[in-house]
Amino acid sequence: MPHYKIAIVGAGPAGYFTAQALQNAQNEELTFSIDMFERLPTMWGLVRSGVAPDHPKIKSVAKVFEKVAAEPNFRLFGNVEVGRDLDIEEICPRYDAIVMCTGSSVGKKLGIPGEDLTGSLSAAEFVPWYNGHPDFANVEVPLDGETAVVIGAGNVAMDCARILGINPIELDATDTAEHALAALHASKIRTVYIAGRRGPEHAAFTAPELRELPKLEHTNVVIDADAVHAAHERAEAAGEIEKHLASNLEAWRLIAEHPHGGHERTMEFRFLSTPKEIKGVDRVEEVVFGINEIKGGKVVDTGETYSIKTNLVVSAIGYYAEHIKGISFRDGKVENDNGRVLGTNIYTVGWAKRGPSGVIGTNKSDASDVVKLLIEDLDPEPKNGGDITVVIPQAITIIDQAGWSKINAAEIAAGEPLGKPRVKEVEIAKLIALAE
Ligand SMILES: Cc1cc2nc3c(=O)[nH]c(=O)nc-3n(C[C@H](O)[C@H](O)[C@H](O)COP(=O)(O)OP(=O)(O)OC[C@H]3O[C@@H](n4cnc5c(N)ncnc54)[C@H](O)[C@@H]3O)c2cc1C
User: Fold this and answer.
1) Each residue of 308-352: pLDDT tens digit?
2) Is the CB of 134 under 6 A from ligand 1?
3) Out of 3-12, 236-245, 370-379, least confident range
4) 55 in ligand 1 pocket by Cβ < 6 Å?
């Protein structure tokens, strides 16, 4: 009975769903052992470091991941970064196939003057800061001004705006990183603008995210009713309104009509606004926006501008993949053909393959499609390439499944007396100590 060894790089949803698809594909004639490599001592990728702390239900998918990891054919090599601690060239000959599930973690730039001023952050820094990613615990997030500006019209922008715009008491019972929670409690920000280049009808926010906004207990949510009306008219004029758009337009109407609660905090949507420049001497002081209009279905610059005084700008306009030595990248993704890295025994799944799109579940179908191709491509004779452990540098403390389980249990135990799902440890050395 042929037994194949598969390496998965990256312990996010794509990695675990790939392992699950391999486990599900096993039969009397085909079995796998799976080695998963993860650069951090903590697992679950963006389910831990991306998904907003005030959306805890979404994180329950981690239970599925842990079930996959509990199977006897699964081994974890946490705290091992491929391309740094272990080269692709060392992995390839030892496995029948390698699946790169390394995500898309670098924030796209606005490409405007002033973007590098202190106080101008990417969501790729701000989100992992509040979610306790060890690499971002020390990001400087100025919360001393009264106003923040979030640029982008997708769910990541919405998460950033909500975290800045809600009363931090709403985060007390969550797994928000302790350093971020303390900073948010001291925050002076009372108004958060969310700016999108196009109209409300084009925004990539999904309806559930929009529909929760009027329910916020301590924050007024504002969108100009005329802007919503105009968006509706434009959408109607453009032809039949499909279900998803109809649902979003209805959600916008509900937000516009919802009576403001007279709260101290406000989140306000500004559409048809393109950031032109971030002004400031040593730090962000003002963002200048160009005002757009929609003509013939296209976004057109009117030539007029307005500006918002602020010390904090968070841009959430997309991500691209971080380069990994030995892997070829194109257009911000692992260069691939439907998940195959042509001419190699390497495959890719998830955000590394597709770019930053889709929800957690999208990675499940993606994994199952790519695993089918991987199985089609397997040589009749397994490689028997030898053990990987001999090439992992001795100086590296490998976090195996037992070690990660200890970290997980310790964090959950620390959260219990505080009524939180967990208290995240953000120092690598302390995480490693918890695993030992
Ligand atoms: C801010 C934010 C909020 C989101 N909220 C939601 C939500 O509410 N609901 C929803 O359904 N989806 C949400 N998503 C989308 C969801 O998180 C993604 O679809 C999913 O995480 C992508 O999975 P992935 O495994 O491809 O990448 P990731 O989750 O990024 O996992 C990649 C993993 O690879 C590891 N890695 C990277 N490089 C290396 C290397 N060289 N060696 C070893 N390991 C490496 C990383 O550390 C990481 O653990 C959100 C995304 C973001 C950014």
Assistant:
1) 999 999 999 999 999 999 999 999 999 999 999 999 999 999 999
2) no
3) 236-245
4) yes
95 in helix, strand or coil?
coil
Residues near 9 by Cβ (< 8 Å), separated by ≥ 6? 15, 36, 37, 82, 91, 98, 99, 100, 101, 102
The model's pTM is 0.97
Give CA–CA dist 218/263, Å, rounded. Answer: 6
Q: What is the DSSP letter of 197?
A: S
**CATH number of 109-318: 3.50.50.60, 1.10.630.10, 3.30.420.240, 2.130.10.10?**
3.50.50.60
Any atom of ligand 1 within 6 Å of the Cβ of 152: no
Going from the Cα of 51 to the center of ligand 1, the distance in angstroms, rounded, reads: 9
Taking the chain, what is the end-to-end CA distance rounded to the nearest angstrom? 37
Q: Is the CB of 68 under 6 A from ligand 1?
A: no
Q: Is 37 helix (H, G, I), strand (E, B) or coil?
A: strand
User: What are the sequence ranges of the domains in the chain?
Assistant: 3-105+321-435, 109-318
Q: Tell me which of 42, 51, 209, 346 to substitute to probe ligand 1's pocket, judged by most ligand atoms within 8 Å of the beta carbon.
A: 51
Residues ≥6 apart with Cβ < 8 Å to 281: none
Would you say the CB of residue 79 lies under 6 angstroms from ligand 1? no
Check if 3-105+321-435 and 109-318 are the same fold. Answer: no
What the block records as the tokens of 214 is 């009027």
Residue 350 beta carbon below 6 angstroms from any ligand 1 atom: yes
For the beta carbon of residue 13, count every other beta carbon within 10 angstroms. 31
Q: How far is the CA of 352 from the centre of ligand 1 (A)?
A: 9
State the fold for domain 3-105+321-435: Rossmann fold (3.40.50)
Ligand 1 atom nearest the C-alpha of 350 is 26
At residue 97, what are phi and psi to the nearest 5 degrees? -155, 150
From 36, 46, 206, 370, mutation site for ligand 1 pocket: most ligand atoms within 8 A of C-beta: 46
386 C-alpha vs ligand 1 centroid, how far in Å?
A: 30
Mean pLDDT of the chain: 97
